Amino acid sequence: MRSYQPDLTPPWKKSVPVPEVPAEPDLVVEDATTGFCGAVIRCEKTAQGPTVTLEDRFGRHRVFPMEPRGFLLEGRVVTLVRPASATPARPARTASGSLAVPGARARVARAGRIYVEGRHDAELVERVWGDDLRIEGVVVEYLEGIDDLPAIVRDFSPGPDARLGVLVDHLVPGSKESRIAAQVSDGDVLVVGHPYIDVWEAVKPSSVGIPSWPRVPHGQDWKTGVCRALSWPENTGAAWQRILSTVRSYRDLEPELLGRVEELIDFVTAPE
User: Using one digit for the tens of pLDDT, what is the confidence trace for 161-209?
Assistant: First the structure.
């Protein structure tokens, strides 16, 4: 008769079952080995086994094998498994929150336009509303400032079939921008704005990973001052790409910008 041999393995060395979690799109997990944290983009079959692609808050992608006990979910060890549906689901909504239209072709561009102050504004609008704008046939152009806005409006020659929408930074009572905007009184032109000094501030600090946007002393270049205050390299182009990469949808933007852009799109696309 074989004698009983007790299990003397310490409890912390015993293999404890962990939950299996479907790797659904947008699920945020951390790779247990490297510490890379990101949202699930897709799952794939490979010759070496299933893999999952994660995207971090800076927009970087990395591929990991879906090994047992390979990930952390809210601090707990889990095993990622492929979702039940073998066919990847199409996103139900666009980045702006509109219903997605799979396979829709871009409409021929309208005569109407939306003008924004700078390249960063245009890139942010494209990031969130790009799908909507292509379906509606609305082109966004940037002006490099609005000092000459009244002349720009005259040159555009707006009309019922060619409406013009203009998005202005720092449109608050008493500002230079508000005085310039007040000079435009054409019924086929809509000038709206947000209260922020620069469109950078329209991105929620929590999305960027900072507690708040710094206050920059008057007289300093605002963007350079932000980089200094956040201990970022004083390269405003690189800083903007860092900020833009954190924007995945309208949820990453402040409502003061969201409402104004939606208002412009509605104005430019309204029936004659």
Answer: 999 999 999 999 999 999 999 999 899 999 999 999 999 999 999 999 9
Cα–Cα distance, 272 to 268 (Å, whole number): 10
CA distances from 185 to 124, 180, 188, 189 (A): 27, 11, 9, 7
Domain match, 140 and 253 both:
yes
Token output for 149? 């806005």
Q: Is residue 66 part of a domain?
A: yes
What DSSP line would sit under 7-71, residue for residue? Answer: ----GGGS-----EEE--TT-EEEETTT--EEEEEEEE--TT--EEEEE-TTS-EEEEE--TT-E
Paired strand residues for 37: 30
pLDDT of residue 45: 84
Inter-residue contact 212 to 196 (CB < 8 Å): no
With a CB cutoff of 8 Å and minimum separation 6, the contacts of 132 are: 94, 96, 98, 265
- For residue 241, the surrounding DSSP H or E stretch is helix 236-244
Task: Domain of residue 136: give its range.
Answer: 113-199+249-269
Residues 77 and 120 both lie in one domain: no
CA distance 95 to 93: 7
For residues 39 and 55, the answer to whether their CB atoms sit within 8 Å is yes
Overall domain count for the chain: 2
The one-letter code for the residue type at 57 is R
User: Whole-model pTM above 0.85?
Assistant: no
Residues 143, 115: Cα–Cα separation, whole Å = 7
- What number of helices (H) and strands (E) belong to the chain? 7, 11
- CB atoms closer than 10 angstroms to residue 254: 16
Question: 136 with 262, same domain?
Answer: yes
